[in-house]
Amino acid sequence: MPAVNEKGQLEYIFNPGSFTQAIVYAYIHSDEPVFLILEEMSRANCASVFGDIFQLLDRDEQGESEYPINHFQLSNYLHEKLREFHSWDKYQSKIYIPRNLYLIGTMNTSDQNVFVMDTAFKRRFLMKYVPTTIDSNKNQFSLPYSDTETMEWNDFVKTVNDYIVDDKGLQLSEDKQLGQFFMKGKNQKGNDDSIQEESTPYFAKNFETYKDKVLYYLYHDVEKASYHTEKRLFNENIKSFGDLYQKATAKNHYDIYSKEFKECLEEKNNKKDID
């Protein structure tokens, strides 16, 4: 990174990032596991971000990098920081990932406006698929469904997710499904510790957030992707998102959806009433 020294001259100084700091910590604490978390990896160009560090990702049976690299600046920095520790070889010139340093990354299997991660990069990680699951005890709040009915957010998410991938629905991939926390609603508890929905300002606020965030996504990213099937998520009379937004009111929220999807919502509500 460029910096001005005491003589007023421009010079380039090595500025340690998270990876370098993790290596230093791992060498100092060589008897304990160290984890570097790489959140949303697919939102960056991994080949550019990792550079020649990519070569270090192959590990041997002991867990150390199988193919060390030469990195003059990083090597000098590590010598300066670790020369007093027995875990660092003062004659070491090549850089490798120590056996107790673990890289854990998260990524979406397929998302929009992100970089594609090539197979050569992905195969250097152990992949663990995490499915979309709904915990009914978390993020609980209600939304208006009709003039006299409400619907639970978690029930709506389950229903719309099934409809998105179902052969009798939109027949899209699971990447289009909603996460339980795609929208975080608010509830307010009354004196009897029960949820007082319609009488609270949160009820109207939740519905406005739902319109601005959830309906926007469902219309632009889900509905428009279902051109290959005759099934629709919204009523065929909806001609634009502006039209959808205007027609989505607390009293006639039900009417913005297609006949097929309304049947799915009704089936879910009826099953809930029976239970």
Strand composition percent: 5-15%
Please mark out the parts with pLDDT under 50 across 5 or more consecutive residues, or reply none.
189-197
Distance between the termini: 63 Å
How many runs of DSSP E, i.e. beta strands?
8
Please tell me what the overall shape is: elongated
- Roughly how many Å is the radius of gyration? 26 Å
Helix and strand content put the structural class at alpha+beta
Number of alpha- plus pi-helical segments: 8
Question: Helical residue percent?
Answer: 25-40%
Largest sheet: 2 strands, antiparallel
Order of helices and strands: EEHEHEHEEHEEHHHH
Strand order of the largest sheet: 1-2
Compute the average pLDDT.
Answer: 83
The number of distinct structural domains comes to 2
GO molecular function: ATP binding; ATP hydrolysis activity
Pfam families: AAA_5
Domain ATPase dynein-related AAA: 14-125
Protein name: Type II restriction-modification system restriction subunit
